[in-house]
Amino acid sequence: MDHAVIAKEPGMKTVRSTRKRTLVALLLIVASILPCLHVGAAGSNLQVLDTAPDAPDCLTIVGDKSDIQIVVDSGDYPVVQLAANLFAADVQRVTGHLPIVTSTITGAPQIIIAGTLGHSPLIDRLAADGKIKGLDGIKGRWEATLSQIVDNPFPGVSRALVVVGSDRRGTAYGLMQLSQAIGVSPWYWWADVPVRHQDKLAVKFFAPQEDAPGVKYRGIFINDEDWGLNPWASKTFDPKFGNIGPKTYERVFELMLRLRLNYIWPAMHACSTEFGSVPENVALADKYGIVAGSSHCEPMLCNNVHWNETEMGKWNYSLNRDVIHSYWEDNAKARGDDEAVWTLGIRGIHDAPMEKPPMDMPGKLSLMTQVIADQRALLGQYVTNQWGPVAQCFVPYKEVLPIYDAGLKVPDDVTLVWVDDNFGYIRRLSSPQEQSRAGGAGIYWHISYYGQPHSYTWINTTAPALMWEELHKAWENNTRTLWMLNVGDIKPMEIGIDYYSRLAWNPDGFALGGQTNFLRAFAARNFGDKLAPPIADLLNDFYHLGTIRKPELMDRAWALSLTPERAAQLEADYYQLLKKEVSLSEIVPADEYDAYAEMVGFPAHVLGETGLIFMADRNAQLGIDVVDNTNMVTALRNDLGGRVESFNTKIAGGKWNRMMPGMATGKDLTKWSSEVRWPWGEKSSTSSQSETEAVDQPPAGQGWRDAATADHQSSGQAEWSMVEGLGPSGRAMSLEPANLQASWKEGDSAAPSLGYDFVSKSSDATVYLDFLPTFRLYPGMKLRVAVSVDNAAPVLVEVPGSSGAENENGPIRSFAVQNNYVRARVPLPGLSPGKHILWIRAVDPGAVLDEVSVP
Hints:
Blueprint: E1 6-7, E2 15-16, H1 21-33, E3 46-49, E4 58-62, E5 69-72, H2 78-95, E6 100-102, E7 110-116, H3 121-128, E8 145-151, E9 159-165, H4 168-181, E10 201-205, E11 209-211, E12 217-222, H5 229-237, H6 246-259, E13 263-265, H7 279-287, E14 291-292, H8 309-312, H9 321-335, E15 341-344, H10 361-382, E16 391-394, H11 400-405, E17 415-419, E18 441-446, H12 464-476, E19 482-488, H13 494-505, H14 515-527, H15 532-548, H16 556-561, H17 564-587, H18 593-621, H19 626-649, E20 705-706, E21 712-713, E22 719-722, E23 733-736, E24 753-760, E25 765-771, E26 784-789, E27 795-798, H20 811-819, E28 822-828, E29 834-842, E30 848-853
Parallel strand pairs: 5-6, 5-7, 7-9, 12-13, 12-19, 13-14, 15-16, 16-17, 17-18, 18-19
Antiparallel strand pairs: 1-2, 3-10, 4-10, 8-9, 8-11, 20-30, 21-24, 22-23, 23-30, 24-29, 25-28, 25-30, 26-27, 26-29
């Protein structure tokens, strides 16, 4: 088929191939069978100029007479030297001119000076002379940056841009933010975002600019890399090493530096070479200022995936303590000088549960206590304090959480890293007592997951709004020491990673998630102002449909469970998503098309075409236009397969070959591990391995309305707030703030309330409430709202599945995580005929109401 691709030929710029005829024809066929429907820059103090004025507070980087010099003391940290050279290369990308990076001042009239307090004699001299304003604002802080124009800093220098860091990363981040400001995207390499040329380049600072992160450790986890990053690195990018190694990690670390992400859990599946077994990997992490860590199942920075039980015995600390202890001790000795976060505790090999014995909870508590004590003794013996107190974390993931909740005493200085349910909903946060811990709290969160009830590793459809809802809730409840995001293969998760990096840096910087504003800003940074609104519009639709159902989670049973009206609406919405993408792709400049296809176009087609495949299969199963719909499934299947091939072999001239998995990642398409449970893999018209629509439905004629359409709403310091892009409705009402202070007693008239007018025609009626499947904040709490009619006594309604008693494989939460809602049924007996108001009042923090069905 003639697919939408961009081809690069040797020695030529990117050119668009003739690629629309088959796609447009395909969309026309889809349309013909559709049933008719009856239902800024780095900061506000900085301005980048494309002229070179000789004006106060302006610094010319590239002008008519000469180019800037970048001065970094030779005794400063390696990451500062590296960042200075990256910035110089970025100036060259923009202007064609490469500034000189030097360690001495040579008399140039204007220069950039970058340095770390206490490690740069030039910076320390300026500070001693009182020439840097506002230094007290960054002294002693973590990764803080101060940038400003200084006149006459040294003899012979008329003006300098001074970038000061409180520590090594603070300085490097200041330079990398300048790179973004002059137009070099953090995604210039990983997503092929082109750099717009400017002949001249200058910056103007209206005032000193100070910046520092909210969350201390902001990390990404490369995971489930078997079908993307690993084959790409092994066979395309670095065939000499033959795996994910130093060449790949250097590109990862540069991206992280540009995004101000400072912490990594490296790739750890059996297909990958262990990060710590390659000394150059560890050295590169230090060079880029990256804090190396390890995941929840890799204690003491040790990846045990290749543990040889024949040679080393069982991975069971109760049976094989000496061997395992020696294994950890060797690693503590080898990595003791590195800046790291050391993961404590023990699970099974790789991602398996903790091995038995012990069998009972007291035995598990005793063993885990001993493990942690032994690990901390090794850290105390071998690990340096050069980087401050030794950072340690404990991640109660899956079977470990019940052990913690049973009374495990984790030392006070260890960070407790809470976890989501693998689908974005945080299982629990810190209690008031836990919030006072010296080690603080963290969160481990997913935008990619390989596991039951079904994996989602192909594309990222997790809405920024959901990330904000859950991670900002964590922030509000003092989860501020460590955030970790599972990003799968990095591609095509670019937009989610970008939003996460900015949210972790400034958790209060996105008002109610700010999804549309972020998407417009992201599109403007990477594709220009003209394309920003339509790209943001397309992405909002994309995330909305992905919230209703991720493509990886679709199956025949889900499609057949839809009402005819719902199926028709989804079919039309998928079609419109593809139609928008086709129109938008026509106006994307040729040199931007690779980046557009990688981050926007391809994911949109995966979602839209997968959705249409299941809608067409649904029609065929129901006997509706069987031949046409069967042919449609085949045409869409072929087109989508062609797009995967194009992504790998034609986009960016084949740069990403083997990065994008095919449509099948396993032989049995009905299993949780398959890419998608495609209809051609079904053994019958139903699927016993998928949930069905097992929720109560309103009676015929009783419709739904978005919770955001309330007829009455209270206001105050706490209130129900509409979060754009959140929930299946795309405008769910979240109770804000979501901290422990936002609690009310049953029947409290001052509680935040929503009111919905309705007319009763009979004495008995039922209300249905759809909530996001969030959890209560911590064990011992509940997640409830109070429901009443007019002035009657309220009924307490607990959000289904919110207690933490059930995981994502239970009957309630398996449905919830795949559909992003749970439904509560509330009887309303004894109503008088006529007009009424249904009141929903807050009780516990953390509730999110999406849709309401009233009589």
